[in-house]
Amino acid sequence: MKSAFLTLVSLQKCINKLLLRNRLHFLTPEKRSNYKTLFSTKNNHNMYNLLRKNIERKVPLTDEEWNSIVSRTELIKLKKNQFLQTQDSHNSYEGFILKGSFKTYILNENGTESVIFFSFENEWMCDLESFYHQKPTTYNIKAIEDSEILVINKLQKALLFAEIPKLMQFHVLMIERANVAIQQRLLDVLNKTSKQRYLDFKERYPQKVSSINNKNLSSYLGVSHEFLSKIKRTVS
User: Fold this and answer.
1) Residue ranges per structural domain of the chain
2) What is the pLDDT of residues 147-167, one digit of tens each?
3) Which end of the chain, N or C, is less surrounded by CB atoms within 10 Å?
4) Whole-model pTM?
5) Handedness of CA 152, 126, 85, 35 (dihedral sign)
6) What is the DSSP string of 99-151?
């Protein structure tokens, strides 16, 4: 999986010619406290059933096990254009999106963005190499609408594995899915036209495609704003 991840990064460098990890600073704890809320076991269980259902599709949970998960996770609420993570920081999370949308991107040398992934409700999101190997973060992850995401850091996840060993099974399945997504993204860029990739994205996220502005979507597809407008006209 690591090789596929690094291959995707290399491909993105080739596409954009001049990729550079611009030094940014992760939001300070003081600033994050404005929109971060600790997960409350008693009051928020119903609110986060989406997460429990997601896990229990693969691994059944007792109420006690669910409580352990709750106690080690954290809810972060972000306004549109606030960062969950910035490049070259040392704050990396694994997150499950309850509400909203995110873009994962890298900044080019000229200051333009290269969007690698979009992530939406009921999806997992993680800077894999940073999270699992404790390296500086590779990507910026920004909310593109008001969003809520449940996060866990590596230490808390390790403690969860010790408490609930069967979660390792779910972890393996998550990594497998992430690997498939990375490889599929790579194959799409190599083998599909921008129009085909736009149609695939529209089919997968019909309720979201209209809410993503042309700047973000054209960056994701690797085309100009004008060419994206042309694509949209031909398929409308």
Assistant:
1) 2-191, 193-236
2) 999 999 999 999 999 999 999
3) C
4) 0.79
5) negative
6) ESEEEEEEEBTTS-EEEEEEEETT-EEE-HHHHHHTPPP--EEEESSSEEEEE
